[in-house]
Amino acid sequence: MANIKGHRKSLGVDIGGSSIKFCLIDGRSKSILDTNTVPHTSGTRTDTIIQDIMNQIEEWKFVGSLGIGFPGIVDKMVIVDAPNLGHWWNGFDFRTHFTHHEIEVVSVLNDADAAAVAMIEQTRSWSEENILCLTIGTGIGSGWISKGQLLEGTEYGREYSPDLNCTLEQWASAKVINDEKISLKEWVHRFSDILDILIKKYSPEAVLLSGGITRNKELWLAELQHLHSIPIVISDYNEYTGAYGAALNSV
User: Fold this and answer.
1) Considering its fold, how many domains does the chain have in total?
2) 113-164 residue pLDDT tens
3) Which of 166, 181, 218, 238 is the most buried (most CB within 10 A)?
4) Does the residue 3 lie in any domain?
5) Is there a domain that residue 104 lies in?
6) Which whole-number Å values give the CA distances from 173 to 11, 22, 166, 191, in the listed order?
7) How do residues 185-231 score in pLDDT, each as one tens digit?
């Protein structure tokens, strides 16, 4: 297969626990051309997800490089573990399922790392050098930007807290709002709890947030900022941060 990285269009795919988000970009200008969200209406097995991606490729008549953000551990573009989607993903290689000569999978990385790639674009002019990126959804994904570079492999959402008696994402992911029927105000204080833990342990200079819940930031962000002394900022790309980052990583 000819290497088509550098093609004028790139498609980013952000596979989440409840939906797939797509972001089509111009590979030269890095501008967003189109976005879409496809809910998991037929489950999260491998063949279903692949078909959803193929359907979007066909709808947009896409030709170019494909980048994928995946909610789990990824090693050399192969899925190692996918706790939020199912064990059937373990060992899965996307490259074997996209063999069209005009489409090439050139990047597969953890979904939170993909979001951090997008956030690098947003933070280029910031004075802060060590930025903690958190993606709030079914779980809580984490990534680091250090001096403008992505540091891969963090899984802070799955860290266990003895004080909370659960993992950080079990305490304050967006999913718990519906699962435990808590108010947004209570969720903000829960999320503040995990920020306290992460800030104390890892000492970021700023925190950058993404995920679907950030669309309603006017309902909770000010209170969260009031509870902490370091800057807490919302991604410019909102719920498409991961998909945009996956696309950027395939340019």
Assistant:
1) 2
2) 999 999 999 999 999 999 999 999 989 999 999 999 998 878 899 999 999 9
3) 238
4) no
5) yes
6) 27, 22, 12, 8
7) 999 999 999 999 999 999 999 999 999 899 999 999 999 999 999 99
pLDDT mean across residues, the chain:
93
Letter string b/e over residues 215-243, b meaning 16 or more CB atoms within 10 A of that residue's CB: eeeeebbeebeeeeeeebbbbebbbbbbb
**Token reading at 186:** 């209570």
Per-residue pLDDT tens over the stretch 87-111 = 999 999 999 988 776 888 889 999 9
pTM exceeds 0.85 for this model: yes
- Asked if the model's pLDDT at residue 165 lies above 60, the reply is yes
| Structural domain for 35, as ranges | 9-115+241-248
Report the DSSP beta bridge partners of residue 169.
none
